[in-house]
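ok trying again, last paste got cut off:
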Amino acid sequence: MELLKRENYSSGAPFEEKAGYSRAVKVGNMVFVGGTTTTNSKGAVEGVGDAYLQTKIILQKIEDVLNRAGAKMSNVVRVRFYVTDISRGQEYIRAYSEWFKDIRPVITMAEIKALARPDHLVEIEAEAVIGSYLTSRLT
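nice, full thing came through this time. structure:
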């Protein structure tokens, strides 16, 4: 069996080293982006109270780490949303569609009781396959 190269990508958050996780992991041509929130490098939550803004900030962070790993948003095949208030779904989806309306990866949105910090409204994961591209939409 041939082993695939693995690369870990950090966001620079101090807790990554302490807890032992990476913002993203690239294995072969696949990139897995872990749960991403709006906590910035200083530990402050950005976009407090604004579901749309938090989603935009998170998707930009995901795009940034994908680019560092050699991927693009157009390579994303799966997105998972964990939200604390599903009734705000349209706010999350409005921001999401600014990146993914034409790419159309599979998506899951699940309401959960809480996230790591009370001010987090949403946490997002993504998976990308480098070299993938949209050929058709089958119905």
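cool. The chain has three helices and six strands. The chain has one domain: 6-129.
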